[in-house]
Amino acid sequence: MRPRRERGQALVEYLIVFPSLLLLILGAVQFALLYHVRNTLQYATFAAARQGSLKNAKMSTMKDALAAGMTPLFTFKPDIGSLAKGRAIAAVEVFNPLTTKVELISPTKAAADDFAADDPADKTKRLIPNDNLMYRSTSAGSSSAISVQDANLLKLRVTYCAKLVVPVVNVAIYGMVNGIAGVKNLAGEFFADPVASGTATTPNMCSQLKDRFGTVLTKVDDAAAMIGADVSFLDDALDAISNALSSFTIPGLDWDIGGYRIPVTAEAVVRMQSPARFDK
To answer: Could you state, in order of their start, the residue ranges of all structural domains in the chain?
Structure first.
């Protein structure tokens, strides 16, 4: 008796493997884009720190230099119009506290308390001296526990909420970063869902508002229920505001500030080329 021929076996095997293969391919693309964002952010952070070293560690100046360094991320065509639009989008991203956090790690106010003197150009300011450092005392200050030489090292840390743009894997990566378990994240049900599998455990500055504060409101709901109060309208309001922000598009720039994002951090250290200026 002749053996029966097996037909369609390869197709069945392919259909079984295809979803996993697709996730691997899409994931590779998304992580490549994140690597590009990380490299660009590292360069932009150094440019911002360098500008800060020349401009008395002024935060607005450093943010402007950071936006200039990140412009290539948002410039999609080789023309002046696209470059101008990319520069504007970069400025929006950098100066928006929901998407970018710029921290001046050093010099600190404590270092200014130890070493700063009055600014001759502005009596409301004080300057940490950066001249003749090799001849100045190397003793550590009582407040900052560092020397004046170390106080002239500008250290900048930038945390940027990188947008996840590849479909399917963007939700999966966002869920993993925020500690969201289960398949409910594929339906967009995150923190605000009281079901354990849809509750995130590690929110961060890049989480959507409903995901950052949803668990807090759940606790408020539980506490209110014990006294017979109904505050479910707070959940609805948070959800509405979060959804509005995530889908908000800047007029004229065609750029939405929302979407799924995760934090990417870069640091840079340069020596001050001008005295760091602080308020009194």
So the answer is: 9-160+264-280, 165-259
